[in-house]
Structures are given as structure tokens and as C-alpha cells.
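Practice problem 4.
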């Protein structure tokens, strides 16, 4: 994705200076440009990650800014992202305090209450500053419709739902049950869809949910995948020190919650070390989440802590260094409705760096990775590690698979292919069809 251009310069001969522009004409032009911006001012609200750390949202924000939209963002603070206000690439970022990442009913209630209050208050700040015509809400959770609904009802603002997670399925994956909580999450999802003027879905599975469960018109639902930006996800020199003296490195990047299956991976590492007697493989796990500390304890209990590095939440340089150094990558997401229908950013980032991978058989995981991945039977740890060891021991195979993944990203899945779809969705929302579609 390129930065906004400044427009083509009009070339003039030295003997023909540009005529002076009367002051009233300049003022009229300025007023015209301001009027042109009305309807194209976007306020993005995201709760679970700071910006610009949230890669998908930051790519969306920069794409909108490059297309002439005025973009403001409300998001939480986090380590390394602690400024209350920052302007980057012409995008205003307003950050607010948020309690420690929630885990459990009371924790979620506190986090969401604080987040909604801060989002609402900061939305007034943006309203009296740059202003906005569109609220672009990124879930989870499915509560930001309360802020968007207020501005839609009383001020006529448009509300866009950027559907990142399917929360009813996520609830079931986290808590292993349905019951009242599941019904409440379904109700919040319905209200979010009902409030939305337009839905942006990360894949066709999510679009089907918006249409079938959310009763949205198909024409108001646009698929914009979370493709990697190849100007950001790129090769860097490997760092052999990350292998901790071992021959091979297996890489993982992503959130570490209960549904990500890192516990299954750790059980697999135990088998690799103690049953297969392989002590030549190290595992680098990059990411934060509610389960990180529990997973560190589990690694010690299984006797594999010396074979695993938990980096915690990492910025791009550390992430890129780990995956570029890795010989093979892994995605141990459990097989459930949530993971089966969701597109995982980590898969396409592995592919963008030319890394072969192993994962369990999941619908959207297979769609993304294609022939760049081997697929293990559902939640079968033995099958997962057998395929992992197959790739580790066959450099020719993993190089071939990695090249296929990189080619697929370049040809189909990169953000450079998705950004125009986002802009087309916004042109639909504000009534400006792309030139090629105008009658």
C-alpha cells in the first residue's frame, strides 16, 4: 500500500510564470475542498489492540487516508503505545486507559464498561475537532454499536461494522458451553448488525453469518480480507541466537488464548523431546494474551520450558526476526466453529515470508494456506507433530511449499489486493460508485 500522493505537478516553462490566484478564489477553493471532505471523515473505534499495532486496522486506516478520507482512531493504550494522542501519516490516534486484559465475567464487565465510557467521551472530542461522518467499529466485543447507535440516531452518522471475530462462537470456544452468556452475545451481535449501515467481513464465512444470522442485505456486506502488507512483512536477516544452540527453529505468532491450542503444541513438544528424543528443535512463540502465564507454567510442568521461548506481545522487528529465522511455522488452533470460519493473520504472514507450516484441518485455514501447509487431523497432537517433523527433516519439501505460499500471497491474498475492495465498500456507503461501475 502506497502513501497518499501529493498529485501530479503542472509543468510550466520558465518564461511563463503561473498567474496569481485572487485571494477570494483561493478561499472559495478551500471552502470547496472542505465541502468535499464532508461525508468522508471516518472515526475508527477498536477496543482490543492499540494502533498502529493492530495490523489490519492500521492498514485500513492508511488505505482510507490514501483515498482522501480524513481518519481518526480511538483505541486503548498499551506498552509502547502510551501517548494519549498521536498523529501518524496524517491519522489522528486518540488512546485511552484500559484495565488489565480481561479474563472472567467480572474482568470483562470492568474492561468493557471502561472502554465504552472512554470511547464515548473521546468520540465527542473528535466530533468537536476534526469531526466525523462515519463510525467504523471493529469487534471484539460487539458493544461498540452503543456508541455508533447514539451518533447515528441523534446526528445522522453512518455506522460500519468491521467484523473481525464471531463472538458467539468465540464465547463457546473460550468457555466450552452456551447457556445465558451465549444467548446474550448472540443478542449483542444481532443489535450490532441491525445498527450497521454496512458490514465489512474478513472472509466469505463471515459474510454468510452477516447475511443469514444478521439479516443483512448481501449488497451491504463486503469481504475485505486481512492480507499482509508486503511493504511491511518482508525478509530480514535470520538471527541464529533465537535457536538457542539448536539446529532448527519452529515459529508461532499470534494471540495466546484458550482457543489457540498452544497447550496442544506444548504437549506435542513434550512428545518430540521425550518420545522422539529430538533435542535439536527450539520453539519461538511470539504473542500476548490471557493464557501466556498459564502456558509458561504448563511448559515447566511438561519439562519443555528450555525448548520454548515466550516473547510476549512483540513489535514488528522482533516478530519479523523470529519468523524469518524459523525453519517451519505452526498454527495449532483447535478445531471448532470459531477457528473453522475465521481467517488467521498468522497464516498469511507465514506465507508472505515463504515459510511452510503445519496446522489442523480448518476450512478457512485451508483456503488461505492452500499447498503451503500440511494439515493434521482435528486436534490430533500425534498427527500434528509427525507432519511437523516431516517438514523439519525435508528441506526441499518445505522450501517448495514456502515458495507456493509466497506466490499465493503475491498473486491473491496480499493487502495490495484488498485495499481497493475496502475503498469500493466505502464508495458504496457514501454513494460514490467506482468510475468503472457508473452508468
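Answer key:
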Amino acid at each position: 500500500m502506497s502513501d497518499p500522493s501529493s498529485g501530479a505537478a503542472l509543468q510550466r516553462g520558465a518564461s511563463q510564470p503561473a498567474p496569481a490566484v485572487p485571494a477570494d478564489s483561493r478561499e472559495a477553493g478551500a471552502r470547496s475542498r472542505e465541502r468535499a471532505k464532508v461525508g468522508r471523515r471516518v472515526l475508527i473505534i477498536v477496543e482490543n489492540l492499540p494502533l498502529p499495532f493492530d495490523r489490519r486496522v492500521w492498514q485500513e486506516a492508511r488505505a482510507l487516508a490514501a483515498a482522501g478520507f480524513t481518519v481518526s482512531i480511538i483505541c486503548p493504550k498499551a506498552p509502547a503505545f502510551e501517548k494519549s494522542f498521536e498523529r501518524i501519516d496524517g491519522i489522528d490516534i486518540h488512546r485511552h486507559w484500559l484495565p488489565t486484559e480481561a479474563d472472567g465475567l467480572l474482568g470483562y464487565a470492568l474492561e468493557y464498561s471502561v472502554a465504552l465510557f472512554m470511547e464515548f467521551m473521546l468520540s465527542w472530542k473528535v466530533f468537536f475537532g476534526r469531526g466525523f461522518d462515519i463510525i467504523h467499529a471493529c469487534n471484539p466485543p460487539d458493544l461498540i454499536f452503543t456508541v455508533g447507535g447514539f451518533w447515528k440516531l441523534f446526528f445522522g452518522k453512518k455506522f460500519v461494522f468491521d467484523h473481525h471475530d464471531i463472538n458467539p462462537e468465540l464465547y463457546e470456544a473460550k468457555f466450552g458451553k452456551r447457556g445465558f452468556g451465549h444467548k446474550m452475545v448472540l443478542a449483542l451481535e444481532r443489535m450490532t448488525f441491525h445498527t450497521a449501515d454496512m458490514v465489512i467481513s474478513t472472509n466469505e464465512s463471515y459474510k454468510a453469518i452477516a447475511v443469514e444470522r444478521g439479516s443483512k442485505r448481501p449488497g451491504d456486506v463486503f469481504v475485505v480480507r486481512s492480507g499482509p502488507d508486503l511493504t511491511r512483512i518482508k525478509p530480514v536477516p535470520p538471527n541464529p541466537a533465537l535457536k538457542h544452540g539448536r539446529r532448527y527453529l519452529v515459529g508461532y505468532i499470534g494471540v495466546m488464548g484458550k482457543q489457540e491450542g498452544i497447550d496442544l503444541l506444548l504437549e506435542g513438544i513434550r512428545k518430540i523431546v521425550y518420545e522422539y528424543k529430538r533435542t535439536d528443535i527450539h520453539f519461538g512463540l511470539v504473542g500476548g494474551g490471557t493464557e501466556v502465564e498459564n502456558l509458561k507454567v504448563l511448559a515447566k510442568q511438561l519439562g519443555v520450558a528450555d525448548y520454548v521461548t515466550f516473547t510476549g506481545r512483540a513489535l514488528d522487528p522482533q516478530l519479523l526476526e523470529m519468523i524469518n529465522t524459523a525453519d517451519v511455522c505452526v498454527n495449532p488452533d483447535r478445531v471448532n466453529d470459531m477457528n473453522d470460519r475465521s481467517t488467521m493473520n498468522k497464516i498469511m504472514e507465514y506465507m508472505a515470508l515463504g515459510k511452510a507450516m503445519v496446522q489442523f484441518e480448518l476450512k478457512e485455514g485451508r483456503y488461505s494456506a492452500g499447498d503451503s501447509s500440511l494439515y493434521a487431523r482435528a486436534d490430533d497432537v500425534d498427527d500434528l507433530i509427525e507432519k511437523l517433523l516431516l517438514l523439519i527433516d525435508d528441506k526441499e519439501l518445505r522450501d517448495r511449499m514456502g515458495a507456493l505460499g509466497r506466490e499465493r500471497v503475491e498473486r491473491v491474498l496480499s493487502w495490495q489486493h484488498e485495499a481497493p475492495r475496502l475503498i469500493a465498500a466505502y464508495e458504496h456507503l457514501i454513494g460514490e460508485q467506482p468510475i468503472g461501475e457508473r452508468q
